[in-house]
Amino acid sequence: AIRELANREPLALIEYWAVDPDYDGQVFRSAWQDYRGNTLNDDDPLRVVTTTTITVERRPSPRTVCVRAVDVFGFESESTVEIAGTP
Predict the structure, then answer these.
(1) Confidence (pLDDT) at 47
(2) Closest Cα partner for 55 from 21, 13, 87?
(3) Within a domain: residue 1?
(4) For residue range 53-73, what is the model confidence (pLDDT) as tens digits?
(5) How far is CA 3 from CA 6, 8, 63, in A?
(6) Is 8 a domain residue?
(7) Which residues lie across from 64 on neighbouring strands?
(8) Cβ neighbours of residue 63 under 8 Å, at least 6 residues apart?
(9) CA-based R_g, the chain, Å
(10) Which residue intervals of the chain are DSSP H helices?
(11) Which domain holds residue 20?
(12) Is 31 left (phi over 0), alpha (psi -120 to 50) or beta?
């Protein structure tokens, strides 16, 4: 049943996810997060939201944004993207 759910709707197995908009590559500093049971971001206590919008100040140097997710089994994953600086 879990394998079927993972194949059909993999984001249903996310327990927690967070965003660090200024990731330094060493320490993850969460600026936004959602987790199961949190109903501030939506009305479903059994699921996390799958999208969010974060607004950060412009700066001339590039910034690295990191998203960290933890699934119901405790496995953790991260993804980073570098955003170019703006004059």
Answers:
(1) 82
(2) 21
(3) no
(4) 999 888 999 999 999 999 999
(5) 5, 9, 37
(6) no
(7) 82
(8) 21, 22, 56, 82, 83, 85
(9) 15
(10) 2-8
(11) 14-83
(12) alpha
Strand (E) positions, the chain? 14-20, 32-35, 63-71, 76-83
Q: What is the pTM of this model?
A: 0.83
Number of domains in the chain: 1
Q: What is the rounded CA–CA span in Å between residue 72 and residue 12?
A: 9
Q: The tokens 């759910």 sit on which residue?
A: 5
22, part of any domain: yes
Within a domain: 5: no
Angstrom distance (rounded) from CA 57 to CA 61: 11
**65 contacts 10 by C-beta, under 8 angstroms:** no
Q: Which amino acid is at 73?
A: F
